[in-house]
Write a structure and sequence with these properties.
The chain is α/β, with parallel strands linked by helices and 257 residues long. It folds into 2 domains: 143 residues, P-loop containing nucleotide triphosphate hydrolases (Rossmann fold, 3-Layer(aba) Sandwich); 72 residues, no CATH class. It contains 9 helices and 12 strands. The strands form 3 sheets. The chain has a 6-stranded mixed beta sheet with strand order 6-7-8-3-9-10, sandwiched between helices. The protein has a 4-stranded antiparallel beta sheet with strand order 2-1-4-5, covered by helices on one side. The longest helix is centred in the last third of the chain and has 18 residues. It binds adenosine-5'-triphosphate (ATP). The site of adenosine-5'-triphosphate (ATP) has 11 residues, from helix 1. It holds the Pfam family ABC_tran.
């Protein structure tokens, strides 16, 4: 199985340091929850991990190879990506959008196996009823779930998701994270998920990476990475941390004066 490793990533954009010596890795069977306030550098880090940008310093290795040395097809066979903002809607059906996830394996046309994978993923995400609706005729949350379906159809050992639950109601947020946890448990994939909900991040991640002003300020199990001190330091809020039915609950109360 494939491991994604980043070492010493530094990036300056517009005269500001947005990534500062960031090192992390994710391998099979892990969910790394990437958290941090707005502007902390999560999306910038995700772009570097995917080989979509070239950091000023540091390296990203995918399966031991520099990610930017791999062809788009080789990369897409190893990492699926769910973007922060699904495309606004374009007149392509949900089915064909998911079929795009099979592109790294296809010749000029899909085979029966590709169609079967897409059908099965749409069933699993309860999207079969929308299969022949076009993307521009979907709600924001439905579009976001189709992007997740496309990533699952890609059947990669790694999945990187940038705020995949931002447009979802609480039921679909929970369903999405449970589905990722199942992928990790059943298929042994490795997941990096950037997410703002600290309770869900703590509950579903095997490790948390907390970014602040481009620096990794804490990394490890949620109980050590998410403390009242680290939350105060990064978000500027006073938070209470508790548990309900064994699930962590992290509630913000006061914004620090
Ligand atoms: N093209 C750009 N030009 C100038 N600044 C940029 C550019 N892209 C990103 N930045 C800045 O880099 C910083 C990190 O942005 P990034 O999108 O990685 O943050 P984030 O942690 O994903 O934030 P959010 O939670 O709001 O999505 C921000 O201050 C942002 O304004």
């Amino acid at each position: 199985m494939t491991t994604l490793q980043a070492g010493g990533l530094c990036q300056r954009i517009g005269g500001r340091t947005v990534l500062d010596e960031v090192s992390l890795s994710v391998g099979p069977g892990e969910i790394l929850g990437l958290i941090g306030p707005n502007g902390a550098g999560k999306s910038t880090l995700v772009r570097a991990l995917l080989g979509q940008s070239r950091p000023d310093r540091g390296a990203v290795l995918l399966g031991g190879q520099p990610v930017r040395s791999l062809s788009a097809r080789a990369c897409a066979r190893q990492i699926a990506y769910v973007p922060q903002r699904p495309p606004d809607g374009f007149p392509v059906t949900v089915f064909d959008t998911c079929l795009l996830g099979r592109t790294p394996y296809m010749g000029t046309r899909p085979r029966a196996g590709d169609i079967a994978v897409v059908e099965s993923v749409l069933d699993r995400l309860d999207l079969a009823g929308l299969a022949f609706r076009t993307m521009d005729a979907l709600s924001g949350g439905e579009r976001q779930r189709v992007m997740l379906a496309r990533a699952l159809a890609q059947q990669t050992p790694l999945i990187v998701l940038d705020e995949p639950t931002s447009a979802l109601d609480i039921g679909n947020q929970l369903a999405t994270l449970r589905l990722l946890a199942d992928e990790v448990r059943v298929r042994g994939v490795g997941v990096i998920v950037a997410i703002h909900d600290l309770s869900l991040a703590a509950r579903f991640s095997t490790r948390i990476a907390l970014l602040h002003e481009g620096r990794l300020v804490a990394e490890g199990p949620w109980k050590t990475a998410l403390t009242p001190q680290t939350i105060r330091q990064t978000y500027g809020v006073e938070a209470e941390i508790g548990q309900l039915r064994d699930a962590p609950v992290i509630a913000p109360f006061e914004v620090r004066a």
